[in-house]
Amino acid sequence: xxxxxxxxxxxxxxxxxxxxxxxxxxxxxxxxxxxxxxxxxxxxxxxxxxxxxxxxxxxxxxxxxxxxxxxxxxxxxxxxxxxxxxxxxxxxxxxxxxxxxxxxxxxxxxxxxx
Length: 114
Description:
The protein has 2 helices and 8 strands; from the N terminus they run E-H-E-E-E-E-H-E-E-E.
């Protein structure tokens, strides 16, 4: 298992980014509109971390890992067969891949296919 993208939704994006930069020596870029306005930073293993603000009034702060998979449809189907609720079916982000979100055990999980 490999986390391809770690998404953090926070009310104070700049403060979270500054804390990660100071503690971990990474550097966040400017907001990426394709990732909901997330400021992103590369991780040593080839993945990335993104910090963004809520996209709607009802969105709560969350940390959501997106696991890299070879076949997003098969992985989502397998999770569904274990009782997971599909919160967002596969959606392509041009030039970045396809992602999906499911909820299992009250925890948000993401899948990412390149």
